[in-house]
Design goal:
The chain has about 375 residues and is of the alpha+beta class. The protein contains 8 helices and 20 strands.
């Protein structure tokens, strides 16, 4: 494991026990806080968590400092809040956007290469970005596609995984934030997964008019308006996914009939469950990470549970300090009450990419065993 030893005014420092020390130098700040994808003591810290930030301690030489608990190997986002203003780490150029908010990033190395690492010496697949016009959403939609290493050199068909993103993400997030292509390359090289086509579509289906209406209402959106738009968007997503996205992808790529899986995180997990309840015969496996069932899908489950039971794999996971853990537990309970066999995992983590990367690797390995 790489251990970084630096002076106290450098940030971040990855310590030997995999805790991370953040330092921020400011002579005039009255209060400096740290926010990000870490569990600091008793509370969750993160953009989707109940507690947005925790205070840093001011030491000598105008250094503000905070050390996390030890964490699992992974890539973590963070930001400083200086007198109420979100501030990137000026000493760390590595950053990504969470929605529209930029956040600095730090990597905590493992003792050996991890599935999300870029490993030069193994064979790599290909990542393609497709575009098509959606008549249903009245927009140009994008879709990222991972093709396994042998795809260009054979004519055979491959199993497919439709992998859906969260509410603050887009069609590129599973690659740029989740490193899904690295995970596939790693699992294939270790013979822990078969070669699979991974389709990562844009899952946002609000029309420009609906987005404009919601923006015009700002924080004063009447509940009836929100519910109406949410209902239309849910129905539209199913229509868009089944009648536009899948035909477009499956006319262009060689996908093996009967070996189609679907999985997603947060919003994408809810969309997965929704698609599963309306089209239970379409997929042979499903994964839902950090998500729960929508009311309409919950109500449909008793009507189609026998068809759901035919799936070879249903996988549900959530971080132990995720702010929506109880919602995911309700999905687990719903499946248990319906006597639907499934894998349920609660692991160390919050509503963060490092947890979803682990869930994806686990799900793909299990899905491969069913093919």
């Amino acid at each position: 494991m790489l251990v970084i030893i630096m002076s106290e005014n450098i940030s971040p420092i990855v310590n030997e026990d995999r805790s991370v020390t953040f330092n921020f130098k400011s002579e005039h700040a009255r209060k400096v806080e740290i926010a990000g994808e870490f569990r600091l003591g008793r509370n969750v810290v993160g953009p989707d968590a109940p507690v947005a930030s925790v205070p840093m301690e001011k030491t000598s030489n105008n250094i503000w400092t905070c050390t996390t608990e030890p964490v699992l190997p992974g890539i973590y986002r963070y930001t400083f809040i200086v007198d109420g203003v979100r501030t990137l780490d000026p000493l760390n150029p590595w950053r990504r956007y969470h929605g529209t908010a930029p956040m600095s990033m730090v990597k905590v190395e493992g003792d050996e290469p991890m599935p999300w690492d870029l490993i030069p010496e193994i064979t790599h697949g290909t990542v393609v970005i497709e575009k098509f016009y959606s008549e249903i959403t009245k927009q140009v939609k994008c879709c990222t596609v991972y093709l396994p290493p042998s795809y260009r050199s054979t004519r055979k068909s491959y199993p497919a995984l439709y992998l859906l993103h969260g509410g603050g993400d887009d069609y590129g997030s599973w690659v740029f934030d989740g490193n899904a292509d690295h995970i596939m390359d790693y699992l294939i090289s270790k013979r822990r997964a078969k070669e699979i086509i991974v389709v990562m579509p844009d899952g946002r289906t609000r029309t420009p008019e609906e987005m404009s209406k919601l923006r015009s209402l700002g924080g004063r959106q009447p509940s009836a308006v929100r519910a109406s738009i949410r209902g239309m968007v849910s129905d539209r997503h199913i229509n868009y996914f089944v009648n536009e996205l899948m035909p477009f992808i499956e006319s262009r790529y060689r996908i093996l009939n009967g070996s189609r899986a679907i999985a997603g995180l947060s919003m994408g997990g809810a969309q997965t469950f929704n698609l599963l309840t309306f089209h239970p015969k379409m997929f042979s496996a499903a994964g839902m990470f950090s998500s729960g069932p929508a009311d309409e899908a919950r109500g449909r489950l008793p009507l189609i549970k026998d068809m759901i039971k035919r799936l070879k794999l249903i996988y549900v996971s959530c971080g132990k300090w995720d702010s929506i853990l109880e919602i995911t537990r309700s999905l687990h309970s719903l499946l248990e009450e319906s006597e639907i066999s499934h894998i349920y995992v609660e692991g160390d983590g919050g509503h963060i990419w490092s947890f979803w990367q682990r869930s994806l690797a686990d799900f793909i390995s299990r899905f491969s065993q069913t093919i």
